[in-house]
Design a protein that fits this description.
Elements lengths: L8 H15 L6 H5 L5 H14 L37 E7 L5 H8 L5 E2 L9 H5 L4 H6 L4 H4 L7 E5 L8 H10 L4 E6 L2 H17 L21 H7 L3 H10 L7 H9 L1 H7 L1 H11 L5 E5 L2 H4 L1 H12 L3 H10 L2 H5 E3 L9 E3 H12 L2 H24 L17
Organism: Skeletonema marinoi
InterPro entries: NST/OST, P-loop_NTPase, Sulfotransferase_dom
GO molecular function, one term: sulfotransferase activity
C-alpha cells in the first residue's frame, strides 16, 4: 500500500487539531469590502470575522509535513483496569469517526436506548484529545445519568462519539486500553471524496460566518452548552442583504477548484481521509472483535439493522436491542444531521445530503482531482477491510471494480 509522509502519529494528530483552528482564520479579504455599505452593527460583525480569517492559513500545495512538538498525553494510572478497586464508571464504547459520516445521526438515536448513556448536552466531548487535563471526574460528569444508573442492578453502557478520536496518537490509544481493555470501538467509513467534500463545505461555511476557534466541526467544543445556536444568533444580527451575501460567499461556487484542492491537502482533511493508517493504531491495541467498521451507505439502505448491529456490539442484550430499534419511528430513523447542507437548525434529510453530492458532480474536473488524490487511501482501507473479513468496499475510483 502507498505510504505518505504526514509526520509521526502524534504530530499528525496535533496538526489535525491546530489546523481546525487555523482553518477558521483563512483569508477572505473580500468579506470586509462586501459589507461596507451595510448597517453598522452587521458590518462590524462580518468585518470581525474577516479580520480573524486573514491570519495564519496559507494553503499548502504539498502533503502535510511534521511539526516539532506534540500535546501532553492523557495519563490516568488510577483508572488502569489492574489498579481500580471499583468500577462505578466503565467506559463501554467510543465512536471515533469518521468526520461527516453520520456520527451525529448515530449519537441522537443511541441516546434513545435506555441501556446506553451518552453525554446529553453535547455530542463531541473531546476528552481524550483536548480536555484530559480536566481530569477523569470531569469526564464522568459529562454522562448525565451516571449517578442514578450506576447504582442500579444493570449499569448502562457509557460511551461517547468524537470523530477526531480516529486520529488519536498511539500512546493515547494505549492509555485507553490500559483503562478500559474491553472498550468497543465504532468507526463509520464514508466514501472518501464525499466525506472530504462535505467537510470542506462545512469549513467554508464556518469561516465565512467568522466563527471563533473551537467552533469548527458542527460548532461543538465540549464546554459550551449553547454553541449549537451560534450560527442562528449571528445570522439574526445581520440584515437580509448581508445574510444573502454571506450565503453566497459560503457557497462552494464562490471558490475555484484550486481552493478545494489546497484545503484537501491541508493536514486536517488529509489526515482524516487516511482511514487505514489511523485505524491500524487502534488494531495494535484492541482486538479486531472490539472494533466495528460500518459502511456509511447502510445509514440510507438499512438503518434499523445498522442500529441493531451497533447496539449489540456495544453490549446491549439482543432482546433489548431489538426492542430499542423497534421503538424508533420512521421519521427518527430517516432523519440525518448534516451541518454542511443545512442552513440553520442543523437538521436535514437524506435528500439534502444528496444535493451536496450533486454540487460536486457539477464540477467533474474537481471531482476527478479529488479522486486521484484520495485513491491510495481508499485502496489502503479496502485492503484493511479484506484483511479483517468485511464483505464491503469503498469506491477506490478505479475503472474496474474489485470482485468480492
Amino acid at each position: 500500500s502507498t505510504e505518505y509522509a504526514v509526520g509521526t502519529l502524534e504530530e499528525a494528530h496535533l496538526r489535525c487539531i491546530m489546523s481546525d483552528f487555523a482553518s477558521l482564520l483563512s483569508s477572505f479579504k473580500q468579506d470586509a469590502s462586501a459589507v461596507s455599505a451595510a448597517s453598522k452593527s452587521g458590518a462590524a460583525l462580518v468585518a470581525k470575522g474577516s479580520k480573524e480569517r486573514q491570519q495564519n492559513n496559507k494553503p499548502s500545495r504539498k502533503r502535510p509535513l511534521a511539526t516539532t512538538s506534540a500535546p501532553a498525553s492523557p495519563h490516568f494510572p488510577s483508572m488502569h483496569s489492574n489498579k481500580r478497586k471499583n468500577a462505578d464508571f466503565e467506559l463501554t464504547f467510543l465512536g471515533i469517526g469518521a468526520q461527516k459520516a453520520g456520527t451525529t445521526w448515530l449519537h441522537k438515536l443511541l441516546q434513545k436506548c435506555s441501556d446506553i448513556s451518552l453525554p446529553q448536552e453535547q455530542k463531541e466531548v473531546h476528552f481524550w484529545d483536548w480536555h484530559h487535563r480536566k481530569g477523569f471526574e470531569w469526564y464522568i460528569r459529562q454522562f448525565d445519568f451516571h449517578s442514578q444508573k450506576a447504582s442500579s442492578a444493570s449499569a448502562p453502557h457509557y460511551g461517547e462519539i468524537t470523530p477526531c478520536y480516529a486520529v488519536l496518537p498511539e500512546h493515547t490509544i494505549a492509555e485507553l486500553y490500559k483503562c478500559f481493555p474491553s472498550l468497543k470501538i465504532i468507526f463509520v467509513a464514508r466514501d472518501l471524496v464525499d466525506r472530504a467534500w462535505s467537510a470542506m463545505i462545512m469549513e467554508l461555511r464556518d469561516q465565512t460566518m467568522g466563527l471563533s476557534a473551537g467552533e469548527f466541526a458542527n460548532g461543538v467544543t465540549g464546554t459550551d452548552k449553547n454553541n449549537n445556536s451560534n450560527h442562528a444568533n449571528k445570522r439574526t444580527k445581520l440584515s437580509a442583504a448581508q445574510q444573502r451575501r454571506l450565503e453566497q460567499q459560503s457557497s462552494p461556487s464562490s471558490q475555484p477548484d484550486s481552493y478545494f484542492m489546497d484545503r484537501l491537502r491541508n493536514a486536517t482533511h488529509d489526515s482524516r481521509s487516511n482511514y487505514a493508517k489511523h485505524l491500524s493504531n487502534w488494531y495494535k491495541h484492541f482486538p479486531s472483535s472490539s472494533i466495528l467498521l460500518i459502511d456509511y451507505r447502510e445509514i440510507e439502505s438499512n438503518p434499523r439493522d445498522l442500529l441493531l448491529k451497533v447496539a449489540m456490539h456495544i453490549g446491549v442484550e439482543e432482546e433489548q436491542a431489538k426492542q430499542f430499534v423497534t421503538s424508533l419511528n420512521d421519521k427518527e430513523v430517516g432523519q440525518r444531521v448534516n451541518a454542511a447542507t443545512s442552513s440553520g437548525s442543523g437538521a436535514s434529510t437524506v435528500s439534502s445530503s444528496t444535493s451536496s453530492h450533486q454540487l460536486l458532480t457539477q464540477r467533474p474536473m474537481l471531482k476527478k482531482q479529488m479522486e486521484r488524490y484520495l485513491q491510495p487511501y481508499a485502496r489502503d482501507f479496502n485492503d484493511m477491510l479484506k484483511t479483517k473479513g468485511y464483505d464491503w468496499r469503498l469506491d477506490d475510483f478505479s475503472l474496474k471494480k474489485e470482485i468480492l
